Amino acid sequence: MATTSSSSGDNEASKIKKQCLGWIEWFRGWFCLIYEMLFQRIMASHLHNPMPLPPINDLTCIVTGSTSGIGLEIARQLAQAGAHVVMAVRNTKAAQELIQKWSVDSAGLGIALNVEVMGVDLLSLDSVARFAEAWNARSAPLHVLINNAGIFSIGEPQKFSKDGYEEHLQVNHLAPALLSVLLLPSLIRGSPSRIVNVNSIMHHVGFVDAEDMNITSGKRKFSSLMGYSNSKLAQVMFSSVLNKRLPAESGINVLCVSPGIVQTNVARDLPKIVQSTYRLVPYFIFNAQEGSRSTLFAATDPQISEYCELLKADEWPVCAFISQECRPANPSEEAHNIQTAYEVWEKTLEMTGLPSDALEKLLEGENVKCRYGHEQQ
Ligand SMILES: NC(=O)c1ccc[n+]([C@@H]2O[C@H](COP(=O)([O-])OP(=O)(O)OC[C@H]3O[C@@H](n4cnc5c(N)ncnc54)[C@H](OP(=O)(O)O)[C@@H]3O)[C@@H](O)[C@H]2O)c1
Question: What GO MF annotations does this protein's record show (predicted)?
Fold first, then answer.
């Protein structure tokens, strides 16, 4: 009798949906963040700066948000190492100016750059869908998609895109997810290929309620920290399911990376006084070149495919996560929550206007239309 009531009690308990991180997970998350901030330089002391890259002349790489910070460094170094780089940016003029500058720098070294610019605004899912359509129309292979662009509107009130989604969620998760799915035909053409998501150690303090990804239910009070960390956790969860659902034969691997704590324009919304303090601690904080190393490693290291395939064969619940010191790391405990990850997957497809069988159709070579991308510019 006692056993029956306790097991039914357990069932009841398992039915109660987790509403937030447990305090141990929350404490562990903040510990990881502070530890990374204090010791990242020591942990990454074995890495060269800039990071030497293997031969990549045959690679075509799309880098989002490559006009500033980490993305700028990623695009510059890939281009100077010989890759064909597509700068997917919202400020196309700034990107053209950067190419001119890099070309002058490289001409002295006898290197001809192969870089081009394509416009995309991640705050508009129409723009994302149009970008993917334009790229796929070339019928060219894509070897590496680097979802780097991101925002952290520190201290700002909750804002929504014209698509109706909370801005951190849209720029850091929904738009890169849509781009990744829509570009699959080109990634299949470029196979073996990779999707590298520039994530963050801050996903450790994130919590995603798939029923309330937009944080509008009123159950939780929005803060920019919550918006940012939740969007990064949603990205790890979506990437894990995408990676799992892509069969090994597709040759496409999906990874997330942590760039470390990096001095970039990401803190542009901080009060000036805090920004000055932030610049006063260069010993602890990476510069953009140092912050680009884990992504460059994930995008180009030949052993990455083998590692990802091993995780896939082991049915590991999460995708590969590369730390700021270019080593395999474990994402947060919450990222291993398979049930939520599948809910995030389904909800993301719904929010981005993709059919629930989009992946299967694309893998079979069929055309997939999403709800976005038909509006005229
Ligand atoms: N810095 C850090 O400590 C840190 C730590 C962990 C993770 N990260 C991640 O690293 C990535 C790069 O950030 P960062 O530090 O290099 O910041 P950043 O200097 O602010 O660069 C962000 C880039 O994203 C672009 N972007 C922002 N909103 C966009 C939109 N709606 N459409 C298209 N592009 C957009 C920006 O374009 P504009 O120049 O036009 O604004 C910029 O090129 C982000 O995903 C961030 O979350 C950074």
Answer: oxidoreductase activity
Would you say the CB of residue 70 lies under 6 angstroms from ligand 1?
A: yes
Residue 15 — pLDDT band, cuts 50, 70, 90? low
Inside any domain, residue 377: no
**Residue 149 CA to ligand 1 centre (angstroms):** 4
pLDDT-wise least confident of 20-24, 257-261, 290-294, 349-353: 20-24
Where is 97: in which H helix or E strand? helix 92-107
Q: Could you tell me the residue range of the domain that residue 288 belongs to? A: 21-363
Place 5 in a pLDDT band, splitting at 50, 70 and 90. very low
Atom of ligand 1 nearest to the CA of 149: 24
Note whether residue 7 is domain-resident: no
Catalytic residues: 228
Q: What is the CATH number of the domain that holds 199?
A: 3.40.50.720
pLDDT, one tens digit per residue, over 342-351 is 999 999 999 9
328-329 and 320-322 strand pairing: antiparallel
Q: Judge if the beta carbon of residue 171 lies within 6 A of ligand 1.
A: yes
- Closest residue by Cα to residue 350 from 358, 340, 341, 338: 358
Note whether residue 281 is domain-resident.
Answer: yes
> What is the residue-averaged pLDDT of the chain?
92
Distance separating alpha carbons of residues 77 and 200, to the nearest angstrom: 21
| Cβ 373 under 6 angstroms from ligand 1 | no
- Is residue 91 within 6 Å of ligand 1 at its C-beta? yes
Average pLDDT over residues 56-65: 97
Distance 266 CA to ligand 1 centre (A): 6
pLDDT digits over 301-318, tens only?
A: 999 999 999 999 888 999
Please give the tally of structural domains in the chain. Answer: 1
Q: In 65-74, which positions are buried (b, 16+ CB within 10 angstroms) versus exposed (e)?
A: bbbbbbbbbb
Which residues fall within 8 angstroms of residue 207, CB to CB, at 6 or more apart? 18, 20, 21, 229, 230, 233, 334
Q: In whole angstroms, give the CA distance from residue 239 to residue 227.
A: 18
